[in-house]
Design brief:
seven-stranded mixed sheet, 414 residues, 15 helices, binds nicotinamide-adenine-dinucleotide
Length: 414
């Protein structure tokens, strides 16, 4: 039986807790989410009867600050997946040193099959259902797979209508006219590109000598590919839910992005050859960036992989056994809680700007983001080197330690 994303998250947690000798009571506290909300709610469809959708909001840990984490709209969303994603958010915010806990939400739906009006109705009703948890000082959602700035705007408007005043700080990843931050849309990809180049530097590889394969061509995948190509890397393969393409001479990402928007897929891009998903992940590229969904780097893929570096743009893309295989084969891996943290970092900047009603220049945002990514990378690299562990083990020990320390000083209530 396939293990769930939450099993993976707990296995990663258990391994890290064991390696750092974390107190047993602390392990009990941190290995489960604090709050889990399941909602079933009706949505008026354009045609036919009302449909009932199921959604979730899980707060894993709020010891270090308000809960923070995205909203996923996807047919495969489950409570266990949302729990895993919420837990990873707690470690990510701790590792990056930003004052948030971890949360995640999701609705079981296929957004591409809904009309704009249906998507708006669904979002507004879901927002209302989870409003008992959400607020600028309690729980601040953001975009994830299947949601975007427009969905964030509907969510913010719904919360604001209920409050009777504009509440921009209730959600991040919003459009600029309603309190969004410059640079937020590109932030996760910018962070991925920053740590990729940094890891390559440590490995003695120049960006111009590195080829890249990116799985997923949504927000994270497309921006990672674009910024890596601008840094001089050659992006040789990309994929989306419809398939994968390859061009050993390098794809023109500046051109592919508008082309894929127009054709609603990357498949068929002129000059590229179709390849399978497995071929994309095991092809002849220096770096593989999984930027779609969980569990895609299986043991088989890890055994066949020809890359030197995996940078986890997605959350939880590597199965624990595969992680071990990559390690044994000497393939370096920058873990999700570091690699894709750029999104939550700029979400933090957006929240700060909204609370202060004072907005920063894009250059300041990008500069601060890159500084935080470099700081976190250096800390993780340093610990990994000192203790001769993988970057994931190092990142986990730093993150868990911060959450455990906060829990310890706050004490157990009552
Ligand atoms: P998105 O919806 O914008 O894009 C997802 C992409 O993955 C699409 O191109 C889709 O076609 C593709 N995809 C879906 N299923 C696939 C499959 N089976 N094989 C290949 N491609 C597939 O989502 P996103 O916001 O880019 O998120 C991608 C990943 O990054 C997720 O794991 C998410 O949790 C993580 N993440 C996102 C952010 C953010 O700011 N958006 C931040 C941190 C982490």
């Amino acid at each position: 039986m396939a293990i769930s994303a939450f099993d993976v998250a707990q296995q990663q947690f258990d391994a890290a807790a064991e390696a750092m000798g974390l107190d047993l009571s602390m392990r009990e506290v941190l290995r489960v989410p604090q709050r889990e909300l399941i909602v079933n709610f009706p949505v008026r469809m354009d045609k036919g009867p009302v449909r009932v959708f199921t959604g979730y909001r899980v707060q894993h840990n709020i010891t270090r600050g308000p809960a923070k984490g995205g909203l996923r709209y996807h047919p495969a969303v489950t409570l266990d997946e949302v729990r895993a994603l919420a837990m990873w958010m707690s470690w990510k915010t701790a590792l990056m040193g930003i004052p948030f806990g971890g949360a995640k939400g999701g609705v079981v739906c296929a957004p591409e099959t809904l009309s704009d009006r249906e998507l708006e109705n669904l979002t507004r009703r879901y927002a209302t259902e989870i409003a008992i948890l959400v607020g600028p000082h309690s729980d601040i959602p953001a975009p994830d797979v299947g949601t975007n700035a427009q969905v964030m705007a509907w969510f913010m408007d719904t919360m604001s209508m209920h409050a009777g005043y504009s509440m921009p700080a209730v959600i991040t990843g919003k459009p600029i006219p309603v309190g969004g931050s410059l640079g937020r849309m590109e932030a996760t990809g910018r962070g991925v590109a920053t740590v990729t180049v940094e890891a390559l530097e440590h490995m003695g590889i120049e960006p111009a000598d590195a080829s890249i394969a990116v799985q997923g061509f949504g927000n994270v995948g497309s921006i990672s590919a674009l910024l890596l190509s601008r840094k001089g890397c050659k992006v040789v393969g990309v994929s989306d839910v419809h398939g994968a393409i390859w061009d050993p001479a390098g794809l023109d990402i500046e051109d592919l992005i508008p082309w894929s928007r127009m054709h609603k897929t990357v498949v068929g891009y002129p000059g590229s050859s179709p390849v399978s998903n497995a071929e994309l992940l095991t092809g002849n590229a220096t770096v593989v960036v999984p930027a779609a969904l969980e569990g895609v780097i299986t043991t088989e893929i890890a055994r066949e992989a020809r890359c030197k570096l995996v940078v986890e743009g997605a959350n939880g893309p590597t199965a624990p056994d595969a992680d071990q295989v990559l390690k044994e084969r000497g393939i370096m891996l920058v873990p999700d809680i570091l690699a894709n943290a750029g999104g939550v970092v700029v979400s933090y900047f957006e929240w700060v700007q909204d609370l202060q009603a004072f907005f920063w220049e894009e250059s300041e945002i990008n500069g601060r983001l890159e500084a935080l990514m470099h700081r976190a990378f250096a800390q993780v690299w340093g610990v990994a080197h000192e203790s001769n562990t993988s970057l994931r083990e190092a990142a986990y020990s730093l993150a868990l330690d911060k959450v455990a320390q906060a829990t310890l000083v706050r004490g157990i209530y009552p």
